Amino acid sequence: MARALRVAALGALLLGVAAAALGAQTWWGRPLSIDVFFLRVVARFGLESPMLLTQLRLLEPYGIRFHADELDDFSVAFARRRADRVAQDLEMLGSYDRASLSPDRRRSYDVMEWFLDARVAGRPFLFHDYPVNQLQGIQTALPDFMLNVHAIYDVQDAHDYVARLQKFARALDQASDAMRFRARQGVLPPRFVFDRVLEQVAALTAPAPTESPLVVRFRASLEDLDGLSQSERRALVESATRAVEQSVQPGYARLAAVLGQLRAEATDEDGVWKLPDGEAYYAWTLRQHTSSVLSADEIHELGLLETARIQSEIRSALAAESADGAGFREALHALEADDRFHYPEGEAGRQQLLADYQAIVDDAGARLPAYFGRLPRARVVVERVPAFMEEGSPEAYYRPPAMDGTRPGIFYANLREVAGVSRFGMRTLAYHEAVPGHHLQIALAFENDSLPLFRRLIPFTAFVEGWALYAERLAAEQGFHPTAYDRVGQLASALFRAVRLVVDTGIHARRWTREQAIDYMRANTALGEREIVAEVERYIVNPGQACAYMVGQLEILRLREHARRELREAFELRSFHDALLGGGSLPLVLLEPAIEQWLVEVERAG
Q1: Alpha-carbon Rg of the chain, whole angstroms?
Q2: What is the pLDDT of residues 371-418, one digit of tens each?
Q3: CB of 358 within 8 A of CB of 381?
Q4: How far is the CA of 108 from the CAs of 14, 199, 412, 440, in angstroms?
């Protein structure tokens, strides 16, 4: 009965068919309307991921909270059930007559088809990933979710928070079982991954339960709640502390024991070529992330060409500043070593750095109306990457806003080494993660009521990351940078993305070792040693993802130039951007048809 009520509640909201229409035909059979089918796919994904529902906050405004005390299912059985359902959804999608649909629905059909087909194609590799890894494994994802996503606005939120802590052990045990299952299939991450994760687990469990970040944050949140007596606050904190003591820490202890056992079986081979049918798996990850037909060899060669081109641009930019353009790495390292481009280590430096990032974001936001006709309502703020995640996290990342407006978009800056942050690279990073990058694109999609819900939510990597890299270049083209050094920072960032194409394909297709990849990045960028190591280790555990950035950016630039040639004097950058972002995130193979349709409409109107 509880499950049926959950289905009805979410179905009534997301499918919009009210109680009378929410019957067996709509939920378990073939919906008569393809719009209802689209919504049902989203609804089922939501039911299966209570953590996603909490992040999006689609249901809370309606008083629906059945999901708020649950964690996701990380079991092998669940992964198989979801894969089965995705295959069924793809088959059902094919039963609708695409030719009879309106142009907008045909595009939605194509997007859904690409999304489902890519996952069905990946079914043979369902367990080729590493659910526990130093970059985005469950061991840090769970506490990050509790600290930064599970909001506490009232007493019920507080009780749900405790309930979720009590379920940590189950989730961590599921992840442990999933790791063991993969090991039996011959899927193990390289040895260094175990070392990094064990360090993270040790750091997370080192404080006593009363001093755990999960309890400290909870205690502080309760101080802001009205209507709670001191005894009620104390009881809630005691419940959270017991949950950490009886569920969180034992779950981590068992996970650490499993990791220790599996580490003994691991090797130092880094690429996914080592996995069963690893070459086919990597080809699939490239298709999944780039949404293109480019092969590993083509992407590798593209990376080599772009690396040489951008290095030449950097030399020219440095020469214009009377720097030694011939030795661009040495010149960049000299800039990196210049005290005027750095913050002092310590808390005061951290706070100033965060304030300066926010000022950059606010300044960029004030410039946007000149280049975009549509702007998001949601704001974006800058926050620090949680300390327990700093070591394994990238330099920065973005978390989208809640769809009910209760949480802004957040640009997280990694402050593990404040003195290593260069001022001349900050603007480009902020433009990528916030505006005109991730926040602008994702928040606009979230707020676009003209799109089916699934098209507002699905993030196709090459589009999302390609847009953010394009935003870096757009800001440089339009004069967002106040100094020539900021322009050098933008070029250094572009070089970093080009080198990624070479390194990712080198590791997974050409069997480079971790050390070879580090050496290549060291020779072809001016990144610091610590950042180089973290980046290479990122590519090892997330194959193909790093290739999406430049592949996506180059496609957007190609389409922009194509539109400029076609429209000539009628071309308007604001209109192009609105057309590009107005359809939500798209696979690259569907982006060109969307722009072609826009060109037809512009020419017809003009």
Answers
A1: 24
A2: 999 999 999 999 999 888 887 778 899 999 999 999 999 999 999 888
A3: yes
A4: 17, 44, 32, 22
